[in-house]
Predict the 3D structure of the following.
Amino acid sequence: MLTNSQAIVLHAFKYGESKLIVDLFTRQSGRLSFIVGLPKTQKGRLKKQFFQSLSLLEAEYDERPKVQLQKLKDVRLSLPFVSIPYDASKLSISLFLAEFLYHALKGEQQNQPLFDYVWYSIAWLDGRTDSVANFHLVFLMHMSRFLGFFPNLENFREGCYFDLRAAAFCAEVPVHRDFLLPEEASRVEMLMRMDYPTMHLFRMSRQDRRRLLEVALLYYRLHLPDFPELKSLAVLEEVFNE
């Protein structure tokens, strides 16, 4: 079935001499993998530069349900980046998010609210002109809303614990070890109150950000099967420690 959809590039790698295997998260079909033949001349439609991490595309493809590698008919940049490739902080965040999404969205079917959230977030990051140091933290925790394990804030009280497995604040220490003590639990509640326009108003040290990122990734590992350690994490931490 011929389908037109917005799409976000999650990952691309070279296959043979003149092809790419590309993973896209599409608005109409969820996550799909494509085999893409690279053109031999500059006049070809499917240019390699279209498939950089997190590129926002308009794609036309022939979707076949039982085929592992779909075929792209046409693709164009929907929103060319104006700052992400040229800003060290934004570039490191984008590489981290691309690796994160590649694993977090495995097997993801059509989920248009989730797609719209990711698309809007990438576009917002590219257009932002002031500090983005808290962006990845806000992105990770708010994305959990669309995957079914958004923290329940109703029971938050000063001095309570946060049960990472149950995704809930609690008055008593959980019987397992995957929980946060009250001081860190309060930081999670603070993080959930942030959004992109207001996140620069919340002051955090480098150590606070590093710890909250560790907590966020642990949270995903507890809720998503086989979620791995991320290789790009070291680069992200190095950039924000400078």
Remarks:
- The beta strands are 2-15, 19-26, 30-37, 56-62, 70-77, 161-163, 168-170, 179-180.
- The CA atoms of residues 7 and 47 lie 15 Å apart.
